[in-house]
Design goal:
single chain, about 110 residues, little secondary structure, Alpha-Beta Plaits, two-stranded antiparallel ribbon, 4 strands, binds iron/sulfur cluster, iron-sulfur, NAD-dependent dihydropyrimidine dehydrogenase PreA subunit, 4Fe-4S
């Protein structure tokens, strides 16, 4: 469930507001989204995936955490990194997940 929007990282691009399927965010006056309807979050991670500056943290739990964690103690944007979105990352779709293909050495399909 969405837990954190980092005010120090957010560049107010509205991507998370646009991609959220359940309209969890409201745009704040300064452009930084506010988690306005946390209970509507479906833990789909789309906001975290689309945030271009890794400003979001979606916890894997489907219920709110008992206490909102400190921003410095959570892996902001970890899902986006994991799927390989973002500059300089290998898109997850290009990583082999099945048996090694002949001639690939069994590693990623890109160098
Ligand atoms: S995890 Fe999905 S449902 Fe939850 S706030 Fe992000 S985009 Fe919306
Ligand atoms: S996608 Fe990231 S940078 Fe853009 S408004 Fe949302 S939190 Fe801010």
């Amino acid at each position: 469930m969405i837990e954190i929007v980092s005010r120090t990282r957010c560049v107010a691009c509205d991507k998370c507001v646009e991609v959220c399927p359940t309209d969890v965010f409201t745009r704040g006056e300064d452009g930084v989204p506010v988690i306005a309807r946390q209970s509507d979050c479906q833990t789909c991670f789309m906001c975290e995936a689309y945030c271009p500056v890794d400003a979001l943290f979606v916890a894997p739990q489907v219920h709110p955490l008992p206490e909102r964690p400190e921003e410095s103690r959570v892996p902001l944007g970890a899902y986006r990194e994991r799927i390989g979105w973002g500059r300089g990352r290998v898109p997850g779709a290009r990583l082999a997940i099945g048996p090694a293909l002949p001639g690939t050495g069994g590693g990623p399909l890109v160098s």
